[in-house]
Structures are given as C-alpha cells and as structure tokens.
C-alpha cells in the first residue's frame, strides 16, 4: 500500500512513523516539526537554539510517552525542571498551578524540532523536503495522483493523509480534481476550523538577565498584550553561558493589530512591555528576531467525521481536529494511522 502524507508536522510524522512501509511525506519547507520549531543563530562564541513556536513538549498521552521516552533517542532530552508562573493585566505575578508544574516540560539540547528530526531519521518512511503539493486527482481506479505547484506528477498513492493546517488544506482541496459533492463538503468542514495568529518575538542579551524562580510566565486573564514569556536560557544547551534569551509570544488581539508592524518597531515595543512587566531594564537587547505564526493554535475545531471517511483513501490529520498542542497533534496522527490500517485490512 503506497501512502502519501502532505505535511511534516508532528501529526503527519507520527502517522508516517506508525504506518511505516511505502510511505512518502511531502513537506514544502526545509525542516520538520511544523509548529514544534527551532531556529538557530550563530553568535560570538557559538550557536544559540531558540524554540519560537511550541515552547516545550509534554508526554501526557501514551503515544508521546512511547515515542519520546522509549522508542526514540533520549540522549539530548531533558526536563526544563522549573515552573511556569502566571501574571495578569495588572502585572501581578503569582506562582503557577502545582499540578501542572509537576509534569515534565521536555526539550532537546538543540530544540523541540529535534523530535521531528528523530521521527524523520527513523528510516520508517521517505521524506521529500521543499516539495509543495499543488493538487490531488482522484483516478478512476481509486488511487490519488499528486501534483506539485508546477503540475509535475509526484506519484500515485492508494491513501493520502493531509496533515497541514485547515486553511491550507481547504485551499488544496479547492485546487484538486475530486467528486464535486464530496469536494464541497470537505471544503465546508475545513473552513469551520479557525486559527489564531501569534507574533513570537525573540530578545537576545549578551549578558545574564536577573535570575527568576520560574522558567516562564503565562498570562492568566488574557487581558494583557503578552500571552507568554519564556526564558530560553533555562533549557539545557540552548544558550551560550553568561547570555540570556527571552521568547515573548503575543496574544491574539495584539498579533492581529500588529501583524504588519515593521520588525524594528515591534521588538522595541515588546521589549519595553516586558521590561515593565518584570521591573527590569530589558530594552537593551543585543539582537532580536520575529516569527509570524499565521496558524498558531486552533480557536474552533473541525468535526473529524465530516472529513475522514468522506472519500475513500483520503484522510486528515492535525491539531484543528483534536486541540492545539503538540502531543495532541501526535495523537491525531496515531489515530488516523490506526484507522488506515483497519480500513486496509477490512478491504
């Protein structure tokens, strides 16, 4: 059985890992992991790694526990080991939820994107990076032909998993040659899912910032422009000794209002806000970067039964089906992989 998976986020990679065999993953970018993303920066003294999407990984479900702690390498895996505290719009900082903080917060020495690389390097499937699928064509014999955006044939597959954000999936379905009734139904189901945007700003300091008893701060009342502030230097191996990196992820309203703001103005404004929150001068950063996440986390979910099973051999995987966390995306991938095996066995 030849299987194509479109998208090398954690959901798609988990499905590929579970299915094994003649599986090909197509990814438009040059990396793995989707929102479990890490950027590296060459700085005086060495390389710095920054998780600018998902901030850490959880092993709160069986599939992530098995993958991360048993089947894949744990050589560079470590628990951040410090709690997440909260703050409100009045900038009152409080200790976080003890139960939440008791669970491990995992990262790898070279960032959370290592999980995607470990899955891709498992040898269980093939990955084709920098390959954008432009359309699907359902052939008379029931297979799906995949074409890139230049209309070059990428191959024919008995099963296709679409593992990209719902908006991108809807665009792909619109461009595809599929039965019209089912095509309209799939587009409607995908468009029911909505995402929020997020501006993720990295602030780098060639000095140590003030030590804190927490690893990160989470806005508890959702009334502050800042949603999350993480201390990247709390993660083993990410930041050079004596230096500091903060990751400020902005709330939905702020991100929408400032989506087109030039980077220089944006980082200066965010640094001033972080300084006010912490009561510490942090506007003197030595370097900065901005990531604009158009598909940060889902606000509303799609109904899986309105997507999977509508057309034989066509499947959908993603956080918009189950919830916006990396471990839930992995669970979505594992569920669909199991459904494909069952459908194949039952003919």
Structure in words:
It is a single chain. The chain is of the alpha/beta class and 347 residues long. The protein folds into two domains: 1-37 and 113-193 and 301-347, 3-Layer(bba) Sandwich (FAD/NAD(P)-binding domain); 40-110 and 196-298, Polyamine Oxidase, Chain A, domain 2 (Alpha-Beta Complex), CATH 3.90.660.10. The chain has helices at 10-19, 62-71, 98-102, 114-120, 166-175, 180-191, 252-257, 263-278, 326-345; strands at residues 3-6, 23-26, 38-43, 46-51, 77-79, 84-87, 93-94, 106-108, 126-128, 133-138, 144-148, 153-157, 159-162, 194-205, 216-219, 226-231, 244-250, 287-300, 314-316. The chain has a seven-stranded mixed beta sheet. A hairpin with a 2-residue loop joins strand 3 and strand 4 (46-51). Helix 1 (10-19) packs parallel to helix 4 and helix 5 (166-175) runs antiparallel to helix 6. The longest helix is centred in the C-terminal third of the chain and has 20 residues, at 326-345. The chain is globular, with a radius of gyration of 21 Å. The model has no long low-confidence stretch (mean pLDDT 95).
Spatial ordering of strands, largest sheet: 7-6-15-16-17-14-18
Average pLDDT, all residues: 95
| Structural domain count | 2
The share of residues in helices is 25-40%
Low-confidence stretches: none
- Please report the number of helical segments: 9
- What share of residues are in beta strands? 25-35%
Distance, first to last CA? 12 Å
Report the count of strand segments.
19
CATH topology of the largest domain: Polyamine Oxidase, Chain A, domain 2
Indicate the CATH class of the largest domain. Alpha Beta
Counting helices, strands and paired strands, the structural category is: alpha/beta
What is the overall shape? globular
For the largest beta-sheet, the strand count, sense and barrel status come to: 7 strands, mixed
Radius of gyration: 21 Å
CATH architecture of the largest domain: Alpha-Beta Complex
What's the SSE pattern?
A: EHEEEHEEEHEHEEEEEHHEEEEHHEEH
């Amino acid at each position: 059985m030849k299987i194509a998976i479109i998208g090398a986020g954690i959901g798609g990679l988990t499905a590929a890992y579970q299915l094994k065999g003649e599986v090909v993953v197509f990814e438009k970018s040059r990396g793995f992991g989707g929102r479990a993303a890490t950027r590296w920066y060459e700085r005086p003294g060495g390389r710095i790694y920054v998780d600018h999407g998902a901030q850490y990984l959880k092993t709160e479900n069986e599939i992530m526990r098995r993958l991360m702690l048993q089947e894949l390498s744990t050589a560079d895996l470590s628990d951040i080991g410090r709690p997440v505290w909260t703050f409100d719009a009045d900038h009152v900082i409080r200790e976080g939820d003890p139960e939440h903080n008791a669970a491990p917060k995992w990262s790898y020495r070279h960032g959370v994107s290592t999980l995607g690389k470990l899955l891709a390097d498992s040898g269980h499937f093939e990955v084709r990076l920098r390959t954008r699928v432009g359309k699907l064509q359902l052939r008379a014999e029931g297979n799906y032909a995949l074409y890139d955006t230049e209309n070059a044939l990428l191959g024919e597959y008995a099963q296709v998993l679409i593992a990209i954000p719902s908006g991108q999936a809807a665009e792909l379905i619109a461009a595809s040659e599929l039965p019209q009734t089912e095509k309209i139904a799939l587009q409607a189901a995908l468009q029911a899912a909505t995402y929020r945007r997020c501006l993720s700003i990295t602030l780098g300091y060639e000095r140590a910032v003030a030590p804190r008893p927490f690893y990160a701060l989470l806005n508890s009342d959702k009334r502050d422009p800042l949603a999350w502030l993480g201390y990247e230097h709390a993660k083993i191996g990410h930041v050079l000794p004596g230096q500091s990196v903060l990751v400020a992820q902005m709330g939905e309203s702020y991100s929408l209002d400032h989506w087109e703001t030039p980077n220089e103005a944006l980082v200066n404004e965010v640094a001033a806000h972080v300084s006010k929150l912490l009561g510490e001068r942090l506007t003197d950063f030595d370097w900065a970067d901005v990531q604009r996440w158009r598909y940060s986390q889902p606000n509303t979910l799609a109904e899986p039964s309105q997507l999977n099973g509508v057309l034989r051999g066509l499947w959908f995987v993603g956080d918009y089906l189950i919830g916006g966390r990396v471990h839930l995306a992995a669970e979505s991938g594992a569920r669909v992989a199991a459904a494909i095996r069952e459908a194949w066995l039952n003919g």
